[in-house]
Amino acid sequence: MPSFSPAIAYRLEAARAVVHDAARLAMSMRPAAGGPVGTQKAAQDWLTETDGAVEAFIAERMTALFPEDGFQGEEGGMAREGQLRWVVDPIDGTSNYARGRNRWCVSLGLLEGDTPVAGVIEAPALREVYTALLGHGAFLNGKRIQASPVKDPASAMIEMGWSNRVPKAVFIEKIDAIMSLGAMPRSGGSGALALADVACGRLDGYIEIVINLWDVAAALPLLAEAGACVSPFLHTGGLTGPATILAANPHIAQTLSEAVAIPLK
């Protein structure tokens, strides 16, 4: 595990300011409530003008601040490689954003090699900012957060992300396994915010069969610092392509893992 350095802490503070400005830009461009505004890359996979604008804004600012760092975006791919790499999802929850809904965020994570070391997630319509620095805690609006204490799956709330890349039978199988535990299923349309909800205890678990690095990069240090258990996403293909993730509070993680057949190791 990389050790803490002032350089990483400085980068987190800079990232928080850049993400805040990017979130303001996204809010200024947000469509009014109603039918979706944007285009579809695939079924239910939305792209808006804001996605490109926000990613370009963050890329320009972070490149100016840290030209030696790598940079990877959902829309632009791997722009630069580096031992330190920024990974951005300009609008996570675009399907919500495109309809003028509130559950979406700007997400920026920092990896050192293959270790997530810092992350910022801002959901401006919800007035929430999550930050985490490896070894120094996870926070929501400046207050320390931790995973839920729920131990009984029958009292748990579990979210499962939906993707058109997952066969319907697989999705139904996993949802059925969640419900068979007695847990309450949910689906909110933003992987980054769902993982943040696990970190702060609003959810007891989250699974998604196919999800990308930019969706989770900022949330992974949140989860680690909040005491959640997470499947080895980065080591099962997540560094280079889509992979499966499970995150849960430590009390139900093993039970959930066995129920949905997603290993924690």
Write a structural description.
One of its GO terms (biological process) is signal transduction. Mg(2+) binds at residues 74, 89, 91-92, 215. This is Myo-inositol-1(Or 4)-monophosphatase. The chain has 265 residues and is of the alpha+beta class. It has two domains: 6-144, Fructose-1,6-Bisphosphatase, subunit A, domain 1 (Fructose-1,6-Bisphosphatase, Chain A, domain 1, 2-Layer Sandwich), CATH 3.30.540.10; 153-260, D-Maltodextrin-Binding Protein, domain 2. 33% of the residues lie in helices and 28% in strands. It contains eight helices and 15 strands. Strands 4-3-5-6-7-8-9-10 form an eight-stranded mixed beta sheet, with helices on both faces. Strand 6 and strand 7 (115-123) form a beta hairpin. The longest helix has 24 residues, at 6-29. It starts with 5 loop residues before the first helix and ends in a 5-residue tail after the last helix.
Give a short synopsis of this structure.
Pfam families: Inositol_P. This protein has helices spanning 6-29, 49-65, 94-97, 168-180, 191-200, 213-216, 219-226, 253-260, and strands spanning 39-42, 45-47, 70-73, 77-80, 84-92, 105-112, 115-123, 128-133, 138-140, 143-144, 157-160, 184-186, 205-211, 229-230, 243-248.
Tally the structural domains: 2
Please report the total strand number as a whole number: 15
- The percentage of residues in β strands lies in 25-35%
Helix amount: 25-40%
**Main structural class:** alpha+beta
CATH class of the largest domain: Alpha Beta
End-to-end gap: 17 Å
Describe the global form. globular
Order of helices and strands: HEEHEEEHEEEEEEHEHEHHEEH
Rounded mean pLDDT score:
93
